[in-house]
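Dissemination and training. As part of the outreach component of the grant, students in the summer workshop were shown how a complex can be specified as a set of sequence lines and then modelled as a single object. The example used during the hands-on session is reproduced here so that future cohorts can follow it. Participants entered these lines:
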Amino acid sequence: MAEKTTRDVVLEVLHEVFTEFADIDVVPDLTDDLVLLESGLDSLAFAVVVTELDDRLGIDPFTQSEDPVYPTTVGEFVTIYEQAVATAA
Amino acid sequence: MTGLLDLLAGRADEAVVLRDDNAEPLTVGQLRAAATTGHARPEAVVVTASTAREALIALATLDGRAAEIVLDGSGVPGEPYVVTEAELGRAAETRWVLLTSGTTGEPKRVSTTLGALLRGIRPGVGAGAWGLLYGWNRFAGLQVVLQALASGGHLLVPPRTTVATEQVAFLRDHRCTHLSATPSLYRRLLMVPTFGDLPLQQVTLGGEIADQRVLSALKRAFPTARLVHIFASTEAGVAFTVRDGLEGFPASLLDSPPPGVDLAVVEGTLRVRATGGDWVDTEDAVDLQGDRYMFLGRRSGVVNVGGANVYPEVLERFLLEQDGVTQAQVSARPSSLLGSLLVADVVAPGEGPGFDKAILAACRAALPRYLVPSKVRLVEALSVNAGGKLTRGAST
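and obtained this result:
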């Protein structure tokens, strides 16, 4: 099996948190244009995603970035992690 | 003024300490002989015994002769501190200095006297075999030691092990009748099938919040035993007990406290003082629910989750109410976005994979959002310190 890409890991964690933690009944399709604030992910669930990704990828772009980044969509969120992983490598 | 040896007055040459790390039982005669041949030591002395047996001999030798005794259970020799003549002249009674740990933070020195320690102890009451599960140098441990001696009973010191089955086997073999432990220790002991075989007449809880589940489980295991729930402040040197088997304490206690103790709730925390002494803030946050005060947790342990102040103990109590959960500990982990997030470690023997998700779902369904842990981890065991309390620290 091919190694998971950063994108795979981010989507996997998003899906897990949506399923297990987010305060919603139906898990939305995680398309790139899904708007995070409208997806049902509240600030607590979002913080859980970020700490879980820190555990799995060893990176937290929200502490390490000098320019605070505020992703709007799932696609942007994935990109932030891809860039952070590339920078760290 | 009562000295330590006075507690043994009138006792025949019988054992006072049974089996401390495989040593021979310590008898009254041996203790008396050691104490009377010991040298007078006017300076302060650090007692660094690692066993209760050694500690008792040292204390009996020094009490009433040294100005100050520092109780250090580390077994590592400490620096004796030499007091001046003037200090010695002021000392009417040997001061016993306890190093309290609290649940977190640096140890604090708390100075007290044998007289003060004996205040809550009734001689002649509860003669029996007292099991010592605490470190002898802890406030709770000393209470057990002194109560055993004052009552004319024996002190049972189990071999030092973290294996609960071995502790229970020892206590059963020596027919332990009085046991004092923290709720964390009891939860562990209750997992040993033979625990209920102990011929207990008194079950004492202290040191941590006792939830209804552990109180009820102990009542079921020992239906004829007295269930005593003790609230003690090392700093104020006072304690009061609740004996109705219910969690928290009746609000009426504030108006009619036990003799020698004053109680108050100010700004949400319990304050205590020995009557005539200074008020001490216990930092235990309490909440009036009906006619009882319930403990929320330690004020110093408050975790800020996205602006909400959360007591980890409140979530721990909820977790302990879930079927299958025998122990629970909640810690905080830093979050770059919300300050802190809660992480729950849960011991649930007999539950399979997926139980963590079931617990998380139960939390989501029943708790305010900020109390829902970010993660539930199933663990084999939780560690407790010499005071019997869950070891607190930041989650990794």
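Residues 139-150 of chain B form the longest helix (12 residues). Students were then asked to discuss how this feature might be tested experimentally.
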